[in-house]
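--- STAGE predict ---
source: upstream dedup step, 1 unique chain passed
mode: sequence only
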Amino acid sequence: MTSNRNEKTREQWLKTLAAHRQDFDTPASEAFWSPSLDTASRDELTSIQNSKLAALTPFLYENSGFYRRRFDRLRMTPDDIRTLDDLPKWPVINKAEMMEDAIQHPPYGTYTTMSEELWQERGWMQFSSSGSTGVPRVFRYSHIDRDYWEWANARALYSMGIRRGGTVFPMGGFGPHVWLWGVLYALARMGIAVIPGGGMDASARATVIERFKPSVIACTPSYALYLGQVMKDMGGDPRKSSVQTLFTAGEPALAIEKTRERLENLWGCRLVEFYGCTEASPHCGGYTCPASIQPDRPDSIHLMEDIQVWELVDDTEFLPVPAGTSGLTVCTSLNSESSPQLRFLVGDYTQLDPSVCGCGRTHVRAIGACAGRADDVINIRGIKLLPGQIEQAVRAVPSTGDEFEIILSTQSSGLDVMAVRVEHPQHGNSDHIATAVARAVRSQCEIRVEVEVLAPDTLSKTEFKANRVRDQRSR
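--- STAGE serialize ---
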C-alpha cells in the first residue's frame, strides 16, 4: 500500500510539473525565453505556485522520511499546506536540521525523494554541500531534474543576454559545485559554444582568452579580479580582450557596489550574476536582466517564481517580515523530482519587490541583490556585520589590492577585536592608507578596526570562493 502511495504521489507531482513547462525547448521571442511565464501576471504566478504546492506536500510526505517525520512531529498533514497562505504554518528548515538527518541516516539522509531504486533507474548526478562539522549533505538528482535544470538556467541565461554566436569560458573545479554544471547543460540546450575551463591555472586561462577569444567568462567575482591581474602581469589588457560579459556566481558582486565597479573597470565590460544554493533547487534561483543595473536605483536580481516560492523572514524567530523590509531568504523549490524542499532557509539578506521590472518581467526582484548569508555574519562586541560590508569599505580606498583579510582575535583583557589586512603599493609609507581604510570601515560598519598594510601579492590568491575571515577568538 505504501509503495502504491509513493508511486501515485510521484506520478501526480511529475504530471503537475509537466503541466507548467511552457515555452520549454527554444526561446519564444527576442526578449524572453518564455514570455508566457516570464511576464505572467501576479494572479497567474500565484495559481501556478498553489497548483504545485497542492501536489508537492503529499509527494514529500510519501517519498521522504525526513518530511514524513517532520509532518508527524508537528502534528500536521499534507492537506494543511495547499496554498501560499498556508506556508507560514510550516517552520523553516535549516542546514543544521538537514545535517542532523544525514548523520542519523548516512550516507544520503532522507531529506530528498531519491530512493536507491530510483537512483539506479534514472540517477543523473550527485552534489554535496558541507556544513561546519564537515558532514556532507548529499543531493542526488535524476535526469528529469537535469531536464528542468537546463530549462530554468536557459531562461535565466537568456535574460542575461547570453545568445548564440558567442563562446562561453566557464572556469571552476567542476567538483561538487552545482552552478557550473547547470550552466554547461543549459548552454548545450541553447546551442551555445563552450570552452571547458576546469583543471587550468590562471595563466593558462589567460592564454585561452587571448588565443581563443571567448565572449563570456564564468567564475566567482574574486577569481575574475585575480585573473584580470594575471593577464596584466603577462602583458595583456583585460579591457582589450574579447570578453564582453563577466558571468559571476558563488559570492556577492552586484550587492557590493565597489566590487562591481572594480570588476567592470578592470574588464571594461558588463557584469551579470546568478544566485542560488545546492539545497533548494537544481538550477539558478536568482538572475540579472537588462534592467538590473540602473544609475538611479539599487541593483537587483529576479527570482523565478513559477518554479520557486521566495519569502523573507527575520533572523531571530524566522517569522515572515512585513512587505518592503529586509529579511533572510527562504525558498520552496517547485521544480524538482529529487529535491523539492519546503521552506528551506537559504539565509541571504535582501529586500523583495513584486512590482513589474523595467525589462518587462513580472517575477519578484531582490533589491540590492543578495549581500551575504546569515551563516557568514560576524558578531563582534554585539555589532553584527557581513564580510561584504568590510569588502565595500576596502574597495572604496583607491589602489588597495583585490585580496584582503579579516582577523578576529581576543586581547589579554578578554576584549574581542577586529583587524583588517590589505595590500597596497605604498605599503612602505602606509599610515595614510591604514587611516583611510579604518575610516571607511568605521563609516560602513560603525566599528573601529586595526589596519595592517602589506605589500602587493602577500595574501593568498582566491581560486574559487573567497574565505577572507580568520576567527582566532577565545571561546
